[in-house]
Fold:
Amino acid sequence: MQLDLQAKRSKVSAPTLVHKEKFWYKISRNRTLLLMCFPAILFFFIFSYMPMPGTYIAFTKFNYNKGIFASPFIGWKNFQFLFSNGQLLLLLRNTVLYNIVFILLGNFLQVVFAILLNEVMSKWFKKTTQSMMFLPYFISDVLVSLLVYNLINYDYGFISDTVRSAGGVMPKYYSMPGAWPFIIVLVNLWKGTGYGTVIYFAAITSIDTSMLEAAKVDGANGFQRIRYILLPCLKPTVVILLLFAVGGIVKGNFGLFYNLVGNNSLLFNTTDIIETYVYRALMNNFNFSQGSAVGLFQSVVGFAIVMVANGVVKRIEPEYSLF
Amino acid sequence: MKVKEMQKNKPVFHSTKVKLDVSDRTIRGFTYVFVSIFAILCIIPFWMIIASSFSTEAAIRRSGFTLWPTNFSTFSYSLIFRSPDQMIGAYVVTILMTLIGTTVGLFVVSMTGYALQRKDFPFRNGISFYIYFTSLFSAGLVPFYYLMVKVYGLKDSYWAVLLPLLMSPWLIILMKNYVKAIPHEITESGKIDGAGDFRIFWSLIVPSMTPALATIGLFLALGYWNEWYYSSLFLGSQVTYRPLQYQLYNIINKVAALKNSLAATQLVLDDLPSETLKMATATLATGPIILLYPFVQKYFVAGLTVGAVKG
Structure:
């Protein structure tokens, strides 16, 4: 308090010096809190900000031995190449389409499960099924790929065997690009539905029960209660979660795609997303320039989408905006 | 959503006094069937992996993966433990990384989260933006890789796996939201008693946010236990002991790795029970999670319901 007054007094006496003085004063006054943030500041500087000048690689014919800034500058050529052979648009298409399906189907299923669970009386049933559905979320994508292999592998897969013993013909999925959008979507739903259901279920349990009771007394049936009470009450949660998802629409789930498809180039047409392309460009082909160009393209497009989405939301419903 | 509100909100129970009409019964019947089927589908694949890890290779070659071990055998496990170095090494690396990473990460994330929600901290908006911006725009994988390998010299170093997983903007924001639910008066009372900011955090705030710590800690621990991505980027063949999931990844994807890990057992490649071995490795790599799952799951659910929904 005492110090505050001093600061105010100095503002009156020497207006030109004040700003600087105040700044250092603010720092020293908050030094403990600043120090508490310091590890995180350092962390993001080292791992997130330091790589940023490296995006220059996207504009060079990169030579690993020469280093980034000694490599010859070639302007937009990497981007032009990736655009003209259709690679960039294919990757963008795959990434965005998969995400749209994941978001829509995923949220739909999660809301449905949450509502259904809420209709059940048995506490035991609710708890047990929630735990079972949540389990796949805890598993690494490496294991997920093994589970899928276990099921649909042509020679020994469980489904393959079942189909064959029923007299059917099992397709060779690992060489059928057309089948993978379905497989990947199913696996994604399998993995994420439990997690989302838990969140929506929590949102439902925070709805005022008296509303539901009143509706019941007034003779609303189960469908009507869902339609006119539960769904409208869930709307804000759905909108917020959808918004978060739209922000990440050009970001793919690398672990899922890479573990399921790997380096199986037969399937790339329908399964290659930005992350898997960049990873292979880097680790298999050592093509730093193109990998970096695709990565930069993704960051810029993603950034623009978040900005636009946030701007739109801010105008319509400021409460929901991200920042 | 405030913690207090959460505690108040009991699940929605329907009064049984009102007679169930047809639509109620339809919905309920449908739920039991539909939810049960999905829940079973969620755990069956795990069961199948465990079951087939106890089968003989010949049985799998003959009749494929089944729901029950055909010709029960523990051969694949005895093979792994005939030269247990690889597996034990993988466990040690993974457990150490998980413990160290989770502890350090939890400390830093909670400290930052606390500082950033203090309304009297003038730099909080600036620093929040500095952190949040990294999730809006990133340099991408290639420059990151180059920096880690060529500038920081972290190729084949465990640091390259341990450090990047310590925190994320998302975890810090989540933590910030948790701490917000703690009344500001606690900080005020600490100040009046003359405690410094760190002291307030450590002896007043930390004890009152154990559920939040449990949830964030679980996210971190899960990240470390399931880590294979940074390992695949930075840990080359020179590294003897790989984290568990990366070890599994290698065994699944490279027969050579399989051969390597069994070099000491002097088996010919043709005799390798490759399928059951994959399943046994998978069981060992995931076992601890499945065993701990029933105990940690409730913290996860409790924490998520407070933090994940903005409000």
